[in-house]
Design a protein that fits this description.
Elements lengths: L6 H24 L4 E8 L5 E8 L5 H22 L7 E6 L2 H33 L6
Parallel strand pairs: 2-3
Antiparallel strand pairs: 1-2
């Protein structure tokens, strides 16, 4: 029997929303522009939570990671006040590289499309020039 949507997933979504709200106010202190919580994964026993984030500038990534790591205890305490859980999961923060990978994949796909359209254009020109009407 397949379980659809477990409690740990609902808790993960709630943690993501609460941390995003807490960070909205604290980001100014960290001197990081546009820090976004992109996802949260919680273990089934609700002991640990991986919080994924992205930042606008790649140069701010290390600063954001250091600030989030140092703020993990405070954020966990704040979560305990906001959420009705027996035990709030231990938080770990991880940079979400999926956005960068997506942009790289998009660039590769665009390059292939440009190359194919250029190759198709050249092929049609050469077939037009070499088509002397003799095929049969």
């Amino acid at each position: 029997m397949a379980q659809g949507y477990g409690r740990h997933q609902r808790v993960a979504e709630q943690i993501q929303r609460e941390i995003a709200e807490l960070l909205r106010d604290g980001v100014r202190q960290a001197n990081v522009s546009l820090l976004t919580v992109t996802d949260c994964e919680v273990t089934r026993d609700l002991g640990y939570a991986k919080v994924f984030y992205s930042v606008l500038s790649a140069a701010e990534r290390e600063r954001a990671q250091a600030w989030l790591d140092s703020s993990a205890g405070f954020l966990r305490t704040e979560l305990s006040h906001r959420m009705r859980l027996r035990s709030v999961p231990k938080l770990s923060f991880h940079f979400d590289e999926s956005i960068e990978r997506g942009m790289q994949m998009d660039a590769l796909i665009s390059a292939v499309r440009r190359q194919e359209s250029g190759g198709a254009h050249e092929a049609s020109e050469s077939s037009d020039a070499g088509d002397g009407g003799g095929g049969e």
